[in-house]
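Researcher: Here's my situation. A collaborator sent me these components and asked whether they could plausibly form a single complex. I don't have experimental data yet, so a predicted model of the whole assembly would be a useful starting point for our discussion.
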Amino acid sequence: MANIARNLLILAAAILSGAVFTAPAAAQNEQFIPILSYRTGPYAVNGAPYANGVADYYNLINERDGGINGVKLLVEECETSYATDKGVECYERLKSKGPTGAAFVNPLSTGITFALTEKTTADKIPIITMGYGRADSKNGAVFPYNFPFLGTYWSAADIAIQHVAKELGGFDKLKGKKISLLYHDSPYGKEPIPMLQVLAKKYGFEFTPIPVTHPGVEQKSQWLAIRQNRPDYVLVWGWGVMNSTAIKEAASVAYPRDKMIGVWWSGAEPDVTPAGDQATGYKSLMLQHGAGRFPVHADIEKYVYAKGKGSTEPGKVGEVLYNRGIVNAMLGVEAIRKAQEKFGQKPLTGEQVRWGLENLNLSDARLQELGFAGMLKPIRISCADHEGARDGRVQQWDGKGWKVISDWYTADEALIDPLVNEVSTKYAADKKLQPRDCTKES
Amino acid sequence: MIALGQFLEVLIGGLMSGVLYSLVALGFVLIFKASGVFNYAQGAMVLLAGLALVRALDLLIAQGFPFWAAIVLGIGFAAAIMATTAWLIERLVIGPLVNQDALTLFMSTIGVTFVLEGAAEMIFGSDVYPLRLFPTDAWFVFEGLFPGGILINKLDVWGALIAGILVAGLALFFQHTKTGRALRAVADDHLAAHSVGIPISWIWFVVWLVAGLVALVAATVWGTKLGVQFSITFLALKALPVLIIGGLTSIPGAIAGGLIVGAGEKIAEVFLGPSIGGGIEYWFAYVLALAVLLVRPQGLFGERIIERI
Amino acid sequence: MLYRETSQFKTTYAEDMAIFPIRQDRIALGVLLGIAFIGLPLLATFHIWPFGGDYLLWAILLPFLILALAAIGTNILVGYCGQISLGSGAFMAIGAYSAYKLATGVHIPLAWLGFAISIPPLPILASILLGGLAAAGVGILFGIPSLRIKGLYLAVATLAAQFFFDWVFLRVPWFTNYAPSGSVNAPELNFFGVVVQTPIERYLLCLTFVTVTAILAKNLVRGNLGRQWMAIRDMDIAAELIGIRPLYAKLTAFAVSSFIVGVAGALWAFVYLGSWEPLAFSLDRSLDLLFMVIIGGLGSIMGSFVGAAFILIVPIMLNLIPTELGVPLSTETITHLQLIIFGSLICYLLIKEPRGFARLISIGKEKLRLWPFPY
């Protein structure tokens, strides 16, 4: 008994010491940025390379430039395991660290994004959801603190259908075709459905959503149904193990892989390599960038990996999700830089960074300077448009690497905006929010 | 009118995937039979075995070993890992918890699950590791009878074959070896077995070892199907209804339960699913189990529960 | 020395049967409630250590209170009535979604009958309580099999409820008011004109719910009904022989337990998360609740609190400590270590004290009574 009591005492002491240390002394000229990542659990396979990219880019800024205009970046990672409640805990843990609190958060999970939307608005901390998150948050008037950069799932759905139409030889050919959506049964997977229904009505194709229960290890019935129904295309909205399982099951029912189009979260190396040769021909959308190395990677090698500070094996630098991580980190850093132009070269609060995000404007020349030429197109954010750009391409797995097989597509704003307005207006009404007047924002 | 060809295809596919669930359920049954422990950690054991095997294989092949030698050595290594795990679990957790009630034992195996998941991923890595031991493409049979033929996945056939061999092997082991007979004695009444001189903790170690080896076999099949990765632990949840339908103590029950669950959930998903939105197979298996339990509270093949005051 | 009951004489039966027959216990509880209701909010208002930010309130105390409430509910079923349930998460979800529907207005078009059932949006308190009632109703329904199925078989059978409701709330758009993503937002927390917004207000709201429920539950389990449950738990056949109706006892346990769990679910959704999806009430939640009850102590209201604190806080602490001490470990390693240590701790506690913290507390009390002269 005494034994237990002693152990409990030690535990209690440990807990207390943990509490004492939660108030660390921070250096003054530092900008704090939290990283909400997941390197364990069912989605670690995709979460880890992304987090590596983010961490390496922040490191690069510190090592190469000595921070942003002399303001060093202070970074702390917190493991969410893709679980909403852990994500909320991480956010609360990190939001007020550093001299000015968190500059922004990017949770890499649609579920966590939904849970944080209200909290971040109340705390005045922007939430960057590049290529994921809630599609209606494109409307900055209602969602001042949400930034779904580069494309929402509604844009993705439209781009996917544009590509299908191109392969078929025109939008008129879509009529009467069968397109199925194999989706992860969660807010993430369900987001594209309303857009696809709109598109189905417009172009006259037959749309069938097929849910796959989390985490997606068992898809035999779905694929047997597909084998019978023979859709002309299957869109895959999966994450983690669901993607590679889908490809394998497709192979086993002999569904042609080149008729499968994954969203940009279903088109990275860990999604295809487990399926081996069976993945050859599989296509996916690109969130602008794909795999491969660009000038920025050379800098990362030189300033980060050469000093032994890299977060992964050098061989994995340049993978799709790694690249997405550095793109995400770069946009955040550039927003801070933009905000410093207005508020001074010092650590900024989340509210000030929000201004930088909303006025972010990266030209081709600037992207060239940053070493991202060829990965991204110019992006310009405004109060009314928090998405900034909605361009995408399509890539195909040739058994060894991803090959870009299409030109740029741009999602049709005329189609997406009515839906965005409808849903975001409803959100504002539910929450009794007064949308900002975007014409008056500078 | 449902096409007969499609129905047969779904039925066969369902039965086959049911057998794959049975592979995981078998491990549960072995341990429950011998020690009354409802081992939630079976899924984590499959992950550990799979990771150990695939990492050893990768390493050995990179060292230039021929494939067959790598396989033998890799399986040997994974088996050694499972033996160590079994010994540790028996020594540190199950032994000290002897005679506690079933709920406490169940919860302790969830604790073991956390430890195994953490340790397995820390030692062997948390990436996805492809494993290619069996063919994964499909045959199309009766193409003359039905348009498109009936699809049969080769991996499923391998899985069924392996499950058959496993059950036969276990039956022989239980019937014809000294340890096997001692195991059955312990399963019947461990106090009585103890009093006639059967070393209980040794027997429990053997049981956990056998369950670990069954997990290794399950890992070879499921690892080929999914790639070895964390999500494999979710198999435990697919195995539970199988277990309940078959009865917690019956090895043939685990196979029969697997067949029922596999066929039932696939047919429900394919033919019933579309009309109510799809994605029903997860709960359908459990509702099926619930329905079976209402008729036979100890499962189809479980031992009759006799209660006395 | 301090904890002696000498000179506390009891002259009536009622005094002897009081919840806290010892004066020191009553004082301790009073102090505890005083700290919880007045002390902590004061500290938090003036941002006195450890309330520098909202972290302690938002990320520790709020979920702790709500999960403790759910643990009390689970404990009534598992600890007092002996019916193992792995479906608590589902009942939280039922509470949350029913409350959401009631708070945003219910509209059931019965086209084939030619009319529709419409209920205008209800006040938030009514919605939460009715959400609990809805959970109780479903609880009774899923409790019926318990008359025939026992032990671990029942545990797996309750998983049917878990997975079924996970699916229902994902698939039936009516429950989410046809939100495109299936994720819903909590309505404004307006209690009789007072809008609960800040973490302190939220904390006080949950604290009130928990205190009231804990007192009610404590009295319930001491009364006739509670003794019936315990009789069923200890040996159902014997209980039946002395005239307890298993049907009534088991179903009331399911109803009361599901009600409390349902209210906790509604609070978890409305007050803590604010926006949620069915994954917030997954099987992991059910397992966590079962852990809280077992680690805390089966059949102990106090234990539910300690168990909830342990299961919620220890992993967070294990995760925090290396970073705060500046140990250079990657988050990956920390998380794996956290899993290993937490799992081992659970096994260790189960081995050393299978009856949980509640038992440790009562042993501690006995020792304290004799201290400092144990002979």
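Model: Some features of this prediction you could bring to your collaborator: Confidence is low (pLDDT under 50) at residues 1-5, 13-26 of chain A. Chain A touches chain B at residues 39-42, 44-45, 48, 185, 209-213, 215-218, 220-222, 224-225, 227-228, 240-241, 244-245, 248, 251-254, 270, 273-276, 278 (CB under 8 Å).
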